[in-house]
Amino acid sequence: MTQSHNYIDGHWVAGESTVANINPSDTRETIGEYAQASVNQVEEAIAAANRAQRQWANSGLEQRYNALMAIGNALMARSVELGELLCREEGKTRPEGKGEVYRAGQFFTYYAAEVLRQMGEISESVRPGVEVQVTREPVGVVGMITPWNFPTALPCWKIAPAIAYGNGVVWKPANLTPASAVALMEIIAEQNLPAGLVNMVMGAGSKVGEAIINSPDIDAITFTGSVATGKRIAGAAAANLTKLQMEMGSKNPLVILDDADMAPAVACAVNGAFGSTGQKCTASSRIIVTDGVHDQFVEAMQASMKSLVVGHALDEKTNIGPAVDSGQLDQNQRYMKIAEEDGAELVCGGERLELETPGHYMNPALFVNTNNDMRINKDEVFGPMACVIKVADYDEALAAANDTQFGLTSSVITQSLSRASHFKKHAKTGCVMVNLPTSGTDYHVPFGGRKSSSFGSREQGRYAAEFYTHVKTTYLKSE
Ligand code: NAD
User: Angle at the Cα of 433 (from 427 to 115), degrees rounded to 5?
Assistant: First the structure.
């Protein structure tokens, strides 16, 4: 059995214990044992990052560019192999696994280019003879806490801008997906970076995570995960007045209007609701359909769902892999019952499946006659379950879409430019899609939401500079 270590101050080190990483498609397979860092080791990692960051902040831009480019290229070149590893430990299908690793590489090549575009601003002062310069400086050492559902791409969209803008990193990956974390760390460790600049400490949130978020030597915290954990982290950050950015859950609405083309509408719904086994923050969990096309949509959706193959993540035929672990599958099943208790009507799917290999499988489920008062439409379930909410017209659809505590993404399927424009303007979400699924975003533009879905400044694209740098305003009197 392979034992994988933490990466602290440029060295691979054993932890105080290990956890087993189990394949959710075949629970007889243990992928490896993964070191759990002690609190002392987290402190060593933070101290190392502080030392290395001071050196890195003075590094030449070309050294940064070369390191980021090399990491990005390595990820893209190894996307099939590392994608497979991701499938084995998280349950993604082959295209999902490969696609995620390739995208992870693109974050690095994008920020490699951004390294060379770090320009300041110069302005005249209101006082004659004084020049004003506005420049950006690294924020320092960034603590990163990441979830299991995008275990490669998500850390990359944090680590790439962090080091591009001159910061050090102490990263805690999720304990359910440590193999992808170790593989990414191995690629980063091969580059010409100061020892200790990027550290990876594996372990439970309650121990390793807490040690990071409560440290006074961490200058900024970036977190992606559930709202409950986010609130806890916000409390810790407030106590130290630590800069904070968080991306959390959502209940993304996909609105289908009477004038929608049915085939693309169904394709968007299936992709958005069941892609990645519904385990994504951008999943289309609420499908809001106007009366005129409701029955036609439900029928077409049911027909399309019949062809979806649930199976072992590595099987080429599989469209929907397993839930990540038994806890997630139990939660999905619990919400199947809750939905029916609240009066939702199950059209198809939802049952646990026993397949050739023992894994956490269930059929994707579709509910109709649901409304926003039901718990299935209020809570983030994170499973392959979609709920149809029938509405009379566009105005009701928009109101239903916004009637949630979350606000990450939303989508409208329509042929009307004026409806699409109205929706774009009035949807209370950070990202809006028109004639596209609620999931699927680019790497060069800002990503994030509103309300309980996000806190702080945006991730990705140039907007990431807001979090990973401090702005400095200098007044220069030279005469
Ligand atoms: P989670 O909140 O349980 O865990 C996320 C991370 O936080 C893990 O690494 C965990 O170990 C750590 N953690 C837990 N308790 C902690 C504590 N007290 N202190 C510090 N760290 C702690 O979330 P999860 O189940 O791993 O991931 C699923 C959630 O992530 C969903 O809610 C999903 O919507 C969200 N998510 C959001 C986005 C986005 O960009 N909005 C993207 C992906 C996932």
Answer: 105
pLDDT at 204: 98
Catalytic entry in 89, 247, 380, 459: 247
Question: With a 6 A CB cut-off, is 158 part of the ligand 1 pocket?
Answer: no
Section 329-353 average pLDDT = 98
Q: Is residue 174 in contact with ligand 1, taking CB distance under 6 Å?
A: yes
For the Cβ of 150 lying below 6 angstroms from any atom of ligand 1, the answer is yes
> Which pLDDT belongs to residue 2?
83
Smallest CA-to-CA distance from 201 within 146, 154, 140, 138 is with 146
The percentage of residues in the chain with a pLDDT greater than 90, rounded to a whole number, is 99
Q: Rounded to whole angstroms, how far apart are CA atoms 138 and 263?
A: 48
> Ligand 1: which of 107, 149, 227 to mutate, judged by most atoms within 8 Å of the beta carbon?
149
- Catalytic hit among 281, 380, 431, 459: 281
Mean pLDDT of the chain: 98
For residue 90 and ligand 1, the question of a CB distance below 6 A is answered with no
pLDDT at 1 over 90: no
DSSP per-residue string spanning 275-329: GGGG-STT---EEEEEHHHHHHHHHHHHHHHHTPPB--TT-TT-SB---SSHHHH
Instruction: Please name each of the domains of the chain with its CATH number.
Output: 2-249+449-477 (3.40.605.10), 253-434 (3.40.309.10)
* 391-439 pLDDT per residue, tens: 999 999 999 999 999 999 999 999 999 999 999 999 999 999 999 999 9
Distance (Å) of CA 167 to CA 91, 127, 140, 187, 331: 33, 34, 5, 18, 38
Q: What is the pLDDT of residues 295-313, one digit of tens each?
A: 999 999 999 999 999 999 9
What is the strand order of the sheet 454-455 is part of?
A: 11-13, 6-8, 198-200, 168-172, 141-145, 220-224, 243-247, 454-455
Instruction: Please report which confidence band the pLDDT of residue 190 belongs to, taking 50, 70 and 90 as the band edges.
Output: very high
Instruction: Answer whether 249 contacts ligand 1 (Cβ < 6 A).
Output: yes
Q: How far is the CA of 345 from the centre of ligand 1 (A)?
A: 31
Residue 247 annotated as catalytic? yes
* Pocket flag, ligand 1, residue 213 (CB < 6 Å): yes
Residue 281 known to be catalytic: yes
Ligand 1 centroid to residue 449 C-alpha, Å: 16
